[in-house]
Amino acid sequence: MPFPETGIPRDRLFKEMRERKQKDADWRGGRTWSLIYPAGEEVDAVLHEANNLYLYENALNPMRFPSLREMEVEVVGMTADLLRAPEGFEGCMTSGGTESILLAVKSARNRSRAERGVTRPELLAPVSAHPAFAKAAEYFGLELRQIPLRKDLRADVEAAERMLTDETALVVGSAPNYPHGVIDPIPELAALASARGISFHTDACVGGFLLPFFERIGRPVPPFDFRVPGVTTMSADVHKYGYCTKGASVVLHREKRHLREYQLFMYENWPGGLYGSFAMAGARPAAPIAAAWAILKYLGAEGYERLAARIIEAVRILREGIERIPELEIIGTPEASILAFGSSELDIMAVGDALDDRGWCADRQKDPEALHLMVSPEHDRVAESFVEDLRQAVRARGSSRGKQARYN
Fold first, then answer.
1. Is the pLDDT confidence value at 166 over 70?
2. What is the pTM of this model?
């Protein structure tokens, strides 16, 4: 497309944008089961105002925009409190779960070099761990070794123990994992790592702002946070179940010195003077920081508990509805907000296509083939209608294979 010679009027510009947007998924109507985490118009209004207030600022230099530094420190502190970080913790905000994971892997690699003399670092992560760990291994020169899963789809601890070597720089567990919604055996994996001086990371990008509130309202949650000995770093996305706009995440270190010694990038060999950054990016958008601070302060624990209760109810309706359809089966025993379901009797991808035709956006998975739902509070309004449409989609299934699987 050639660069425009002249601008176009504002009305025409936004008319075209709105027309294009009509093709996008209807997340406001609760028809989308991933990517967006709607919590209602009241939350949306707070996020909108907070974003607009800091639309143009740059979080690179806290000396120029001290309010952003203050808000980031407070978001990190609130997240650390939620995840039971001990005295002496440290952390920073990032652009999302992938960046938080990248920084945790980089820090673990640098720590293994400095403290244990590792020269060919390895990263042990379950097969179900997020692809961001594979990306981090490629970026930072680690060998990715995948821990197989047990029959319950959690990481196999015995296999992990056999896979540990003197070159292992980091062991990973998910709380929960994205494909199946189950929580890995974090205490056992962290103990294996700790016994050999190896870093351990709990990937709570999905569960970090959800599981603590499940626990607060009386739902049992397996150990996953800094209360578990041996957990050295954690990631938690504010733009998932913290309900912030994209992109806002937090990476936390049990020990402050690990952030400063192994994550921080410092450079002064250029004419611009000392340059330092905890994150991957240089210039950093201010709006996600402001929005994260605003929504955490606005909702508070009581607000998050109410939203968690809505998710639990939506999951109950969906799970019971799926279990009443004989041809379908839930994959694993999900413990949070994620449901994956498949079938040994019919083409589940064709069922997904039939749901697409009814306006629903359910993701596809493989090994085994399944449809995937990430449940948000607003889904409690549509859960029963989804189950009915799913029942109709099963009845209307075709013999042809479904569309090519889409993976997250």
1. yes
2. 0.92
One-letter-per-residue 3-state SS of 81-149: HHCCCCCCCEEEEECCHHHHHHHHHHHHHHHHHHHHCCCCCEEEEECCCCCHHHHHHHHHCCEEEEECE
Q: Answer yes or no: is pLDDT of 309 > 70.
A: yes
Burial (CB count within 10 angstroms: exposed 0-12, middle 13-18, buried 19+), residue 185:
buried
Query: Cα–Cα distance between 318 and 256 in angstroms, integer?
Result: 42
Neighbours of 222 (CB within 10 A): 16
Query: Which domains, and CATH codes, for the chain?
Result: 23-41+300-395 (3.90.1150.10), 47-296 (3.40.640.10)
> Region 86-112: what's the mean pLDDT?
96
Compute the chain's Rg from CA coordinates: 22
Nearest to 121 by CA among 101, 103, 138, 99: 138
SS3 193: helix
Convert the pLDDT of each residue in 37-80 to its tens digit: 989 999 999 999 999 999 988 888 878 889 999 999 999 999 99
Strand spans (E) along 20-103: 90-94
CB 281 within 8 A of CB 95: yes
